[in-house]
Automatic annotation (TrEMBL):
InterPro entries: AB_hydrolase_fold (IPR029058). This is Alpha/beta hydrolase. It comes from the Bacteria. It comes from Kandleria vitulina DSM 20405.
Amino acid sequence: MLLYVFYGKEIAVKNWIQLQEDYASHLTHAKLLKLECGHYVHNHKPNSISKEMKLFINKLYINKRKEMKTW
């Protein structure tokens, strides 16, 4: 799972980033990306999101192919 989180400067939760990190740490095959931007990360950082999505999907694909070769 690929997770994007903004720095949360606009919200009242002091440990916003820590909460997101804790959540991601309990997931299998998860990556958390912290973006310095506002809440609507897809509007503020579309190029970063697109690039990271492609890298993440390619990594999953490569790992899956490696697993299939061992069958």
